[in-house]
Design brief:
Number of helices: 13
Shape: elongated
CATH class of the largest domain: Alpha Beta
Radius of gyration: 30 Å
Oligomer: single chain
Distance between the termini: 49 Å
CATH architecture of the largest domain: 3-Layer(aba) Sandwich
Order of helices and strands: EEEEEEEEEHHHHHHHHHEEEHEHEHEEH
């Protein structure tokens, strides 16, 4: 979906960019100038088309280098490159943008459309070869011809990149090349190194990506963004330590490129802050602590940086693997119950509210689960967060026979809401025997699986 961003030229200011267009077959309508940013596209400007198909976009600022596009109301579009040349003219026909495109004032766009026409002709040849191959012998011959066509296209790109090193199109061509994995070496024991291919592929995954070029952020997602996404999702183990290491590795490459660095810092932080995978908030904390500093995140306001640091400070003590923050609260008889005094293989820290509709819906599941695990070294420490009417809390406990440890902050001495980030209920944390957090903010239905998984880890996977 395209999101609109308003940009206008102010009267009296010099025109820093102007792009004139003429499209045969188009008149009395509106066109839009768009650009790419990571995996998204945005509308930057709009222009009215006259009766002869003429329109233009102009402004008082130099636009960042990248791939842009003109979008028609019928959703058809064509792409072009903006870089050093900020004034040029393009004309074409709505029947075939590529075939009829003429460019004046932008050598890179002339070469861009020469390539697009060449690629289209090669694709037409490929289709004819595939369509004509019917027998096994013809198909075998077709493979040879197709390989020849592909090699010709590759040579075209390689020659172009060698000749026009400073063009964005050269970087795009290079970025399309993935690592070629060499033959797997033989280990001293005579066996092939089974992990070699993966290690090599990952180590050389970004060989052809220029992290020093801010223009790469402003390209279609398949050029740059998809490569970043693949590295994190497929080539990196889905645990915070590995993801943090991957983030550090990539951001070190982009440190000297302001726009790319900003994009990557924001993308990684938001992706793992909003992740539905438990424990990925550790990545967000890592990013805030290391990259959202006044010296590093110069694009952020001091107030926003402070809010992010405050959020990270809340999350850091309750990350998975951290010791649980002590809680000591009174039970229904006003006897203080210390969470750390519970002698159990696992402690389920359960925050709830007798007036919460979702809690009332989930409570029967919790009761049923607790009844099924009694006597197995598991205890529930249930913290009622609503202290408005202790009588209602006690009545609920009696009515539903909640025979686990029930406590509430009746004397208003605890800071558990802040400590455990209790912003909604019900909320469940799972603590091990040492009271270290092994899971958090999960559903009742997840408890058995989490406990089983933890037991397998400690039993050597048996």
């Amino acid at each position: 979906m395209l999101a609109a961003l308003a940009v206008s030229a102010f009267p009296g200011k010099p025109v820093k960019h102007r792009y004139d267009f003429n499209l045969k077959g188009l008149h009395h309508t509106k066109c839009f100038l768009g650009f790419y940013y990571g995996d998204k596209s945005y509308v930057l400007d709009s222009s009215d088309v006259d009766e002869k198909g003429n329109f233009h976009f102009s402004g008082d600022s130099v636009l960042p280098g990248g791939v842009y596009f003109v979008l028609l109301k019928d959703k058809k579009y064509f792409e072009f490159i903006i870089d050093k040349e900020q004034h040029f003219t393009m004309s074409s026909d709505t029947n075939d943008f590529i075939k009829f495109m003429k460019v004046v004032g932008s050598p890179e766009n002339q070469l861009f459309y020469s390539y697009l026409n060449y690629a289209a002709s090669q694709y037409t040849k490929l289709q004819k070869i595939q369509d004509s191959a019917k027998t096994p012998k013809e198909k075998a011959t077709a493979h040879v011809k197709i390989d020849s066509l592909n090699n010709a296209v590759k040579k075209y790109k390689d020659d172009f990149a060698a000749k026009h090193r400073d063009y964005l199109l050269s970087e795009i061509f290079k970025a399309a090349e993935y690592p070629d994995v060499p033959e797997t070496p033989i280990l001293k024991n005579g066996r092939k190194d089974s992990s070699f291919a993966f290690r090599y592929y990952k180590a050389h995954f970004f060989d052809n990506i220029n992290f020093s070029d801010d223009r790469m952020v402003h390209t279609p997602s398949q050029v740059f963004f998809d490569r970043i996404k693949e590295y994190f999702s497929r080539l990196t183990f889905q645990i915070p330590d590995s993801i943090n290491a991957a983030a550090d590795y990539i951001l070190a490459k982009a440190r000297k490129s302001p726009d790319m660095y900003k994009f990557l810092v924001n993308y990684i932080s938001y992706t793992y802050e909003s992740s539905n995978i438990m424990g990925m908030d550790a990545v967000f904390v890592h990013m805030v602590k290391n990259y959202y500093t006044p010296q590093s995140a110069v694009w952020e306001s001091p107030s926003h940086l402070e809010k992010m640091r405050e959020r990270a400070d809340v999350l850091e003590p309750i990350l998975i693997g951290k010791p649980a923050i002590p809680i000591v609260l009174p039970d229904t008889a006003n006897v203080m119950k210390e969470m750390y005094a519970i002698n159990a293989r696992y402690t389920i820290l359960f925050f709830w509210d007798y007036d919460c509709g979702l809690c009332q819906k989930e409570m029967p599941k919790m009761i049923k689960w607790y009844d099924s695990i009694k006597g197995q070294g598991i205890e529930v420490y249930a913290v009622e967060i609503n202290e408005a009417d202790p009588g209602k809390w006690k009545d609920y406990i009696k009515a539903h026979k909640l025979d686990w440890i029930n406590v509430a902050d009746l004397f208003h001495t605890s800071n558990f809401r802040h400590d455990y980030d209790v912003i909604s209920t019900p909320m469940i944390y799972v603590l091990d025997e040492r009271k270290y957090i092994i899971a958090k903010k999960i559903d009742v239905g997840d408890l058995n699986g989490i406990l089983r998984h933890d037991e397998q880890i400690h039993s050597g996977g048996k």
